[in-house]
Structure formats: structure tokens, C-alpha cells
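Supplementary Note 3. Input sequence used for the single-chain structure prediction.
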Amino acid sequence: FALGDGQEIVIVGKPGLPETQAMVREVYRRFLPNKVLVLLDPDAPRENLMRAAPWLKSFISPVRKPTAYVCVHHSCQLPTSDLKQFVDLLDR
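The predicted structure, written as C-alpha cells, is reproduced below.
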């Protein structure tokens, strides 16, 4: 992290859904050494997580489909539920 830009990737989706798993797979297919990946289940309690990382409170899935946020230096691109658009964001 000291030598390059950090990247935060937040995926909001049910862990068992194929669409969520596809997004996670796309992250791990790439060499992204300075990434932080967070998978948030939209239906799971978040109280403890919010105490540890309150910045995650604003990450939601507005369309009730797996939604991905790709951020650099805490500045995020628009969220997407489209796998191809998510891949494009990761490849930038």
C-alpha cells in the first residue's frame, strides 16, 4: 500500500447468489495487490461491522441485486449491478 494506489471494492449481495459469486470471482481473477475486498450481505446485521468500519454504512444494494462499488482513495465510481460494467471498472 505504501508503493501504489489502494483500491477498495465493496460488493453488496447475498453470498450464495450466483451473481454475487461471479463478482467475487472477477476480483480474484486479477492481480490487484493493493485491494481491500468487502462482501456485505444486505440482510445480515451490521452493528458490529459499523462500529469497526462506519464508512461502510453508505454501501447498499438499491435494486436488491448484487451491487459493486469500486473505489480508489475512498472516492468511488458509481455503483453497478452489471457484471460487464464491474469488470470494466476493475480493469481501469
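The mean pLDDT is 91. Helices lie at 18-28, 47-52, 83-91.
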